[in-house]
Amino acid sequence: MKEKKKIKISLTTKIFIGLIGGLIAGIILNLFVPHSYVRDTIIVNGICNIIGTGFIKLMKMLVVPLVLCSLVCGASAIGDTKTLGKVGVKTIVFYLATTALAVSVAIGVASIIRPGIGLNQGALNYGEVTVAESTSVTDTLLNIIPDNPFGSLSNGIMLQVIFFALLVGILLAKMGERADLVSNFFNQCNDLMMEMTTFVMNLAPVGVFFMLTKTFANLGFDAFLPLIKYMLSVVSALGVQCFIVYMILLLVFTRLNPFKFIKKFFPVMAFAFSTSTSNATIPMNIDTLEEKMGVSRKISSFTIPLGATINMDGTSIMQGVAVVFAAQAYGIELGITGYLTVIATATLASIGTAGIPSVGLVTLSMVFAAVGLPVEAIALIMGIDRILDMLRTAVNITGDAVCTTIIAHQNKSLDRDIFNK
Fold it and tell me: How far apart are CA 315 and CA 355, in angstroms?
């Protein structure tokens, strides 16, 4: 008798199963299981919280050493300082341009849907608003240089880690054989981090299941009803940016098939959706771009960590819609100047924003203050931000991947055979 072949389920499929299972389990707990000690304390805030949060902490544990090692190796492999400079300038310009474009899309969509008109504010749950301190452009640029690189590593200050890693990588390339020992150390550390990433990613299906179970078990659907138009505006703008703007840019600059790109990259988007953190998605993003898109790790190890730090298109879209929503809800006329201020402020606010859940609400206070909107208006949308945060994180990391693919194509570091496979 012939032995039956074992069906091997890929990690991507397992993550999807965990994602869908978590959605279903969370909704069942929310709608059909009454509040009790067992439901709330043991299941949702006990088992689901410990396993889900534990997985996120494992992913965050990888981020700083992985970014440091991959950037050092990437910069030293590129070697030529001029090439690295060109890649850096192109990447930053592209990221800032797409962020400004994202805010413009958000304002346009929200102006059509008009989410703040006729809002019954009495039906909303208000929360406590955290106000962000405004940082000047000068301070933002100076803060890139670390006072103590080890302090930056321990505190996870990503822009400073990126600056230090690039400097080390460039000097290693310049020193050549004199620094072989150090170069080998970082290369071996990078291999170690890749192995550790593979190990942690094998736990992703379980982590995703329990994270989403907890999230949707705690989401009260009654809170959604008064803000349906706001949610529709944000989701529509995110869809336009992700599936129209990015795909047009990809097609124009690389002539690659956008549908094939989305199909190959969708598992990363699903993972970003479930974790709500751009930083945790860095390892999977880099691996997917190399293995499925044919993007050289020399490029992605530089552009992806940088994008997770300064490219927050999804967050900027939420801020653009929130501004229009609050202005309409409070009957405040912003005008062309006000909207231009929003575009500039939201673009600058995205630089250095931490890639962690719901940080966009904190920086939103800076945008509101810039155009004279009451910061208290942020409390209107706090109740439903969690689900939107999941969606905009998926858009954030898609923007990083599209930019990386375009930069790799322009630097002849894109293997089209792998992409078309």
Answer: 10
Phi/psi for 295 (5° steps) reads -85, 130
d(CA 106, CA 305): 25
For the chain, the farthest-separated pair of C-alpha atoms sits apart, in whole angstroms, at: 78
Q: Can you give the chain as a three-state secondary structure string?
A: CCCCCCCCCCHHHHHHHHHHHHHHHHHHHHHHCCCCHHHHHHHHHHHHHHHHHHHHHHHHHHHHHHHHHHHHHHHHHHCCHHHHHHHHHHHHHHHHHHHHHHHHHHHHHHHHHCCCCCCCHHHCCCCCCCCCCCCCHHHHHHCCCCCCHHHHHHHCCHHHHHHHHHHHHHHHHHHHHHHHHHHHHHHHHHHHHHHHHHHHHCCHHHHHHHHHHHHHHHCCHHHCHHHHHHHHHHHHHHHHHHHHHHHHHHHHHHCCCHHHHHHHHHHHHHHHHHHCCCHHHHHHHHHHHHHHHCECHHHHHHHHHHHHHHCCHHHHHHHHHHHHHHHHHCCCCCHHHHHHHHHHHHHHHCCCCCCCCCHHHHHHHHHHHHCCCCHHHHHHCHHHHHHHHHHHHHHHHHHHHHHHHHHHHHCCCECHHHHHC
- Read off the pTM: 0.77
Query: Per residue of the chain (421 residues), what is the pLDDT tens digit?
Result: 445 556 677 777 888 888 889 889 988 988 888 889 988 899 988 999 899 888 878 877 887 888 788 778 877 776 666 777 788 888 888 998 998 899 999 999 999 998 887 665 554 444 444 444 555 667 767 877 889 999 988 887 777 887 888 889 888 888 878 888 998 999 899 888 878 877 887 888 898 899 888 878 876 555 566 678 888 999 999 999 999 999 999 999 999 999 999 999 998 998 888 877 787 788 889 889 999 999 998 888 888 888 887 788 988 898 899 888 888 888 888 888 888 888 888 777 666 555 555 556 667 777 887 788 887 777 777 667 777 888 888 999 999 999 999 999 998 899 999 999 8
In angstroms, rounded to a whole number, what is the distance separating the alpha carbons of residues 57 and 60? 5
Q: Residue type for 318, please?
A: M
Closest CA to 303 of 409, 383, 223: 409
- In the structure encoding, which two tokens stand for residue 306, read together? 């940088």
